[in-house]
Design brief:
Layout lengths: L13 H20 L4 H4 L11 H19 L27 H20 L20 H27 L5
Helix pairs in contact: 1-5, 3-4, 3-5
Amino acid sequence: MTTERTEPAQNAGERTMLEGWLDYHRQTLAWKCEGLTDAQLRTASVPPSELSLMGLVRHMAEVERNWFRRILVGDEAGPIHYGDEDPDGEFHLTEQDTWQEAYADWQAEIAIARRNAAGFGLDDLSRGRSRFTEDPFSLRWIYTHMIEEYARHNGHADLLRERIDGVTGD
């Protein structure tokens, strides 16, 4: 699989621009994981960190689920990879965890995110709330936050990929 990354048009409208940059960053994370084995994708950065590319993808599946299901539409969707007994479970990988499963979960959450967001205007407020505030979020805020979240983690992915096989890139 070859991941195609497309930068948004420089003259796009606001919603198209936000959705375009979010998709660009989603594609960037997929690109950083491309061509690696499951073992390489499970490789942690440096002790004591457990951060790995597969862990980042599982984390972003959880983040997509949280913002576009729980918060935006008020869905009671439970966690995929973590729980009360292991709050950072998305980063705690075993030999049984596969890229195919992690990628499928992530892509499923992205598809649901797109479908849920399509029913909202940029200024429409979320139906659910975060655990940190009772205030609702606009879809614009969620898009902006998601772009920031992916951009930050794509920086981590750059370093992880370079450590695994020396591949660098933007």
